[in-house]
Design a protein that fits this description.
By secondary structure, the protein is an all-alpha fold. The chain has one domain. The chain contains seven helices and no strands. The longest helix has 20 residues. It is globular. The mean pLDDT is about 85. InterPro entries: TerB-like.
Length: about 140
């Protein structure tokens, strides 16, 4: 399991993702707050991260990086649903975040391609895990 520093880093990364083009919308804030609660981070610490992000910490666990990528996919879909943001910009942003996390280019590309075939562009966790598992082996 990830430690507190890694959890804060995960949240900071997601906040940066949400703030990339604009301020965080209410629906994004609520989604991110839900992730914070899942990670055991208080609302006060979460709100502090919005103003004062922590330095990126690379996750050692491949499975944790996959979970984080899935969170970013969900966040991107929320962002696209409730704004005028260009889909190509969001996809490029997600792709770059995935690469920075050390995920394989082939897996990221496959997830982004398959996203279009699912309702609301939400790739089910088991499909996402299978994609990364195949590339990891």
């Amino acid at each position: 399991m990830v430690n507190r520093i890694e959890k804060l880093s995960l949240l900071s990364e997601m906040i940066a993702f949400a703030k990339h083009d604009k301020d965080i919308q209410n629906i994004e804030y609520n989604f991110l707050l839900g992730v914070a609660k899942q990670l055991g981070i208080s609302r006060e610490d979460f709100d502090y991260l919005i103003e004062y992000p922590v330095t990126y910490t690379h996750l050692k666990s491949h499975s944790e990086r996959i979970v984080q990528f899935h969170r970013l996919v969900l966040l991107m879909n929320i962002e696209q649903e409730h704004s005028d943001i260009d889909d190509n910009k969001s996809v490029a942003k997600l792709y770059n975040f995935g690469l920075r996390m050390g995920l394989s280019h082939e897996s990221i590309t496959k997830v982004l391609y398959l996203m279009e075939s699912f309702p609301n562009k939400i790739v089910p966790p088991d499909v996402l895990i299978d994609i990364f598992k195949t590339q990891y082996n």
